[in-house]
Design brief:
The structure holds 2 protein chains of 2 kinds. Chain A has 26 helices and 2 strands. Chain A is an all-alpha fold. In chain A, a hairpin with a 2-residue loop joins β1 and β2. The N and C termini of chain B lie far apart (50 Å). The model of chain B has no long low-confidence stretch (mean pLDDT 90). The chains are: A mainly alpha, B mainly alpha.
């Protein structure tokens, strides 16, 4: 089979899965929907492997293959086709997406075992994977936009999965609205680029780019900035990030798949894919790098004080995506994509481990109520620590190599990029602190809580009776009906599928870093090179001094962060309270998430609502109903009143009119001749 | 014989009918006058048919007769219905369709 056939198969399996589960949700027996979903994604992963192997069979400068199923439209100036682009970049992405998705599907089979929406969940999840694959395989702007919008819709469906929880539906709407802002940016940016290149096809557009644009020209900068808006909304970068922490209302595997491993990295992929344009727009690259750097620092500071375990990981995700956005914006494409891959492994692993603790806590997510779980959940603990070490960038875990790779390239650019470099390491330092704060608070921190001690005795806490969900103060009572989380919460220690999924990802989190060690093997960089053949920034250039400095700095800061976290939260002390009192302004800034929600509420939501109220009370009755609708009806009414007078109802009168009319016509024609 | 004679008779019959339709108030007489109008037209059609020496006009005349038969059926049926409901047999009194 040809490479593109494999790629089409990669797309076909999840689509078939979603249709099969969606159509047969009523007749599929037992848990078969979950196994069909998992199997579909696994087949897709195998096809992705096939695509990889067959792509490697092509010579290095023929590794950009386009295949088109049919044309939507081919009119003057528009070439809209159903075409995919298979090159090292897209193959890299489909491998990561299908690989991690397979594990998360497997995990979900156990995690949502008792949920009444089991089949619906897997139908949505397969649909998401299909959309994401469509996004990364798209061979033209049109299909990219379609995939982009599809993943937004899938994300909305899955965040609001437990649709009878108000918080979940609100979070879904918020995510969708902010993502639509990004969609608009992407479409408008495409327009700016299309206006000059005159083609929607990626490869042709990239070939055209250097000829039709001069570097730094207004239109290409505007186009790239608008593409960045799309990337920021999808990848939760400041100021379009507020939907991501709220998206944690979805089931935990969804957070792992969509809001950590795959969808939110679409912005990184977009910038890497559009690199021929971004390299012509240095201003846009600088904006991307600055925003990425800002996000990584701000999100890390917020993560330091949050108490909801999933939100801590969510802010950590934002922060790590900040690294990737910064990396691909400064031209460290291979490093950015590499970090995307390792992050997908260890972040999905962290979410899965968090899901296991939440299961043991019967839905409770607050770190304040977790303590001493390390003996009750040894496997979860091991996975959490592996994920945490990888996230903190401790050698030889994967995060160490990928994060330092990004910062290395950034530092080598010199100039103001040294500031990004320094802030990147500051972020890494805070990453280690908040990651291990989470670990020490949940697994150490003194006497185990009731849930942990009961679990050690072999009895999962609160399994049979309904429990409270969404934090202890939400007031919502859990029930077993559809649209709410099921009553039994799975933990990895008791469910083999969860254990398998987490083990595989843990292996990835430990070992994935070894495939790209600077100056040793650089597998990712060499593999991706054909996709960036035209790039001026994509070249292997390392100065040993910076490299060694980075490696030492990364390790030291990571270990120092862990030590500080241990000192503060490892045992019950009054250090956290003292720190909170000492730095109360900084604490409340961080705890309230830098007031971004409030600022957006004040600057955008409230003016929009005020305008809406004004329009409804003034504009609508006066102009719309009074002038437009009232005017139209009164014109019709006046016209009909004048014609109505002719209708006397007298039959003889009608006959006379008829005859007169015919006579008039006859006379007219007679006079004509 | 010149075609003009035929057309003269035809138009006299037609105008008699039209005059009757416009002046009489009894619906029965109105219907009769309508028949006169149709037959006036029929006469003209057959005259033209003979003038050109083909049967098209005659066919059309037969069609008109069929239409007239139908119309009379409906018209008489309506008059019977009006009569049964004891409404006035007078076209000027039946003017519910006034605008």
């Amino acid at each position: 089979m040809s490479t593109t056939t494999f790629a089409w198969l990669v797309l076909a399996f999840p689509l078939l899965g979603t249709v099969a589960i969606g159509a047969g949700f009523n007749v599929l027996p037992g848990r078969s929907a979950g196994w069909i979903g998992t199997g579909a994604i696994f087949l897709s992963f195998l096809a992705a492997l096939g695509a990889l192997i067959s792509l490697q069979g092509h010579s290095a400068d023929h590794r950009q293959l386009v295949s088109s199923l049919w044309e939507y439209a081919s009119t003057a100036g528009i070439d809209a086709q159903m075409s995919i682009l298979v090159d090292p970049l897209s193959v890299f992405m489909i491998l990561v997406v299908t690989g991690v998705s397979t594990m998360i599907h497997l995990y979900s089979v156990s995690y949502l075992d008792r949920d009444r929406g089991f089949a619906r969940y897997f139908s949505y999840l397969n649909f998401f994977v299909f959309s994401m694959l469509l996004l990364v395989l798209a061979g033209n702007f049109l299909l990219l936009i379609v995939g982009w919008a599809f993943v937004g819709a899938a994300s909305y469906l899955l965040i609001s999965f437990w649709y009878r929880r108000t918080t979940a539906t609100r979070a879904g709407i918020k995510a969708f609205v902010i993502n639509v802002v990004g969609d608009v940016g992407l479409v408008l940016g495409t327009y700016f680029l299309f206006k000059h290149t005159g083609t929607l096809d990626f490869l042709q557009a990239f070939k055209q780019a250097p000829h039709v644009f001069t570097s730094g020209e207004a239109d290409v900068v505007a186009g790239c900035l608008l593409l960045l808006v799309g990337a920021f909304a999808k990848s939760a970068q400041i100021p379009l990030h507020t939907w991501l922490p709220d998206a944690m209302e979805g089931p935990t595997p969804v957070s792992a798949l969509i809001h950590a491993a795959t969808m939110v990295t679409a912005g990184v992929y977009l910038i890497a894919r559009m690199h021929p344009f971004f390299e012509l727009a240095p201003a846009a690259q600088d904006v991307g790098a600055a925003i990425g750097c800002m996000t990584l620092v701000v999100a890390a500071t917020i993560a330091l004080t949050q108490t909801d375990i999933k939100r801590v990981i969510a802010y950590s995700t934002m922060s790590q995506i900040g690294y990737m956005i910064m990396g691909v914006s400064v031209g460290a494409y291979a490093a950015g994509m590499f970090h995307l891959m390792t992050h997908a492994f260890f972040k999905a692993l962290l979410f899965m481990a968090a899901g296991s603790i939440i299961g043991a806590m019967a839905g409770e997510q607050s770190l304040d109520r977790m303590k001493g779980f390390r003996r009750a959940l040894p496997f979860t603990f091991a996975c959490f620590v592996i994920g945490g070490l990888a996230l903190s960038g401790i050698p030889p875990f994967s995060g160490f190599f990928s994060k330092d790779d990004i910062l290395l390239v950034t530092g080598e650019l010199g100039g103001w990029h040294w500031a990004l470099y320094a802030l990147g390491y500051l972020g890494a330092f805070m990453t280690a602190i908040y990651t291990f704060r989470m670990i020490f608070r949940a697994f150490y921190g003194g006497e185990p809580v009731t849930e942990a001690t009961e679990l050690e005795g072999g009895h999962p806490h609160h399994v049979e009776q309904p429990t409270r969900v969404g934090g202890s103060d939400s007031g919502e009572v859990e029930d077993t009906d559809v649209g709410f989380p099921g009553p039994v919460h799975a933990i990895a220690e008791r469910a083999l599928p969860m254990k398998v999924a987490m083990s595989v990802l843990a292996v990835g989190a430990v070992g994935a870093g070894l495939i790209q060690i600077p100056d040793v093997d650089s597998v990712v960089e060499k593999f991706l090179a054909p996709a960036f053949a035209g790039s001026s920034l994509y070249e292997v250039h390392t100065k040993n001094g910076v490299l060694v400095l980075g490696l030492i700095l990364g390790t030291t800061l990571g270990l120092a962060g862990i030590a500080i976290a241990w000192r503060t939260w490892g045992r019950p002390t009054d250090i956290p309270a003292t720190l909170r009192a000492r730095f109360s302004a900084a604490y409340s800034l961080s705890f309230n998430k830098w007031y971004f929600d409030e600022a957006i509420d004040f600057a955008i939501v409230r003016p929009a609502r005020a305008f809406g109220v004004f329009a409804a009370s003034t504009f609508e009755p006066g102009f719309v109903e009074g002038t437009l609708i009232g005017g139209a009806t009164s014109i019709v009414r006046a016209g009909s009143a004048s014609v109505r007078a002719i209708q006397t109802g007298l039959l003889r009168y009608y006959a006379a009119l008829l005859l007169l009319g015919v006579a008039g016509l006859g006379l007219y024609f007679l006079l004509q001749t | 014989m010149s075609i003009a004679w035929y057309l003269s008779v035809s138009s006299i019959v037609f105008c008699t009918g039209a005059f009757g339709v416009m002046t009489r108030r009894n619906p029965l007489v109105v219907l009769l006058c309508l028949e006169l109008m149709l037959n006036g037209a029929n006469l003209a059609l057959i005259a033209f048919s003979r003038m050109w020496g083909n049967g098209d006009g005659q066919i059309l005349a037969i069609v008109v007769m069929i239409v007239a038969a139908c119309e009379v059926c409906i018209g008489l049926g309506m008059i019977v219905a009006i009569h049964r409901r004891r409404l006035p047999i007078d076209v000027d009194e039946l003017r519910e369709l006034q605008g």
